[in-house]
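Exercise 4. Each item below gives a protein and its sequence. For each, produce the structure-token representation.

Item: Elongation factor P (EF-P) KOW-like domain containing protein (Leishmania utingensis).
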Amino acid sequence: MWRCWQRSVPITARVADSAAGLVAQPPVTASSPLLTQHRGVFADKVRAGMVLRVDKRVYRVVANTRSQKGQNAASFNIKLTEVGTSRKKEVTAGQGHDFAEVRAERVRLLFSGFDDDDFACFVFPPHSPDAGKEVNIPGDSLPEVQQRFLACAMPVDILHIIPDDDTEKETWTEITMPSSYVYTVETITLKGLYKMAAFVECDGTVSVNDQIQLGEKIKVVIKPDGTVAFGGRANP
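Answer:
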């Protein structure tokens, strides 16, 4: 696996995430406008995108559908996906059922490479109060497109789930890469009828046109479905 040996910002502290629970110690806090305060949410107020704790696990709400049972009674069918695993779950609850909305935030970090244990390392940017602190996530838990196209100093958004007490685990998950990024062409090879470019910054390859040469900077489009595409030459 490709590693970025030269980190772009100094490392002053490390927050290690285990593969099983993504446990982080010591606790790391960061300001974010998307911070969700811990509170109860009635079933009829649950909305897609909320992060809830159900049966001691953390889920993201996919959809909430109302079904009428009687003249004045209603129940709600809530579709969930578990954060970090994407396992699906459905629950049915009455209008007055109270769900626990967890404290969560999206945090902007910079990718700093894979370490010798194949953990993906991310650091808080220089302007952050936690500048230099590092968050580690098992590399093999990342989608293939992230393992191949994460580049040193690339800004990413990571979901940070904050524990409510000492018995719960701090979690870092759901890495969101930019929708496109600029890479430097290191080598060009032929694969059948296609011209494939490999890059200085990562392990990924992408099909390019005949005009692209070694050393050029090109844009790679990173799609939500995990595929990538050539996005043309980068603007000078």
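Check: The CA atoms of residues 157 and 176 lie 5 Å apart.
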